[in-house]
Amino acid sequence: MTTPSTTQLAQLMQDLQQRQRGLGEQLQTFEALQREIAQLQRLAPRDPKARQRLDKLERAMRGELAPLKQRLDLCVDKLQGSFHDLEASLKQTGRADAVQAPRRTRPMAARQFI
Length: 114
What we know:
- The chain is mainly α.
- The chain has helices at about 5-45, 50-60, 65-100.
- It is elongated.
């Protein structure tokens, strides 16, 4: 039998896993971008095209991508708030379960089956 708190916990965990997968994909994309930037930095001293791409990226980071960075920062803040809320909810659920079903303090009597 599932209780409402167990159902809520399962839903929260499913939501958390979906968010984790999404963050994982974004992190992989970010790491690929970092590798590409590092490669451009290595090539830039001797490759004019790499230098141009790196300069263009720097300009974009300063200007064109500033609003995107602000949105990303807001999303990160919101996600941190969600994790904080989830943690508080899990703590509350754990307390409620502890009140509803206290732990046994003495061992159960053993049964013998023939």
